[in-house]
Amino acid sequence: MTAVQPTGAVTCRAVTKVFDHTSPEVLAVDGIDLDVAAGEFIVILGPSGCGKSTLLSMIAGLESITSGTIEADGEPVTEPGPDRCMIFQQSSLYPWLSVADNVSFGLKLRGVPKSERREIAEDLLHTMGLSGFADHHPDGLSGGMRQRAAIARALAMRPRVLLMDEPFAALDVQTRTKLQNYVTRLRDESGASVLFVTHSVDEAVALADRIVVFTARPGRIKAIVNVEIDRPRDSHSPEYHALHDHLVDLLADEVDRAFAEQERIRA
Ligand code: ADP
Ligand code: MG
Question: In what order do the strands lie in the sheet with 210-214?
Answer without folding.
Answer: 84-87, 161-165, 193-198, 41-45, 210-214, 221-226
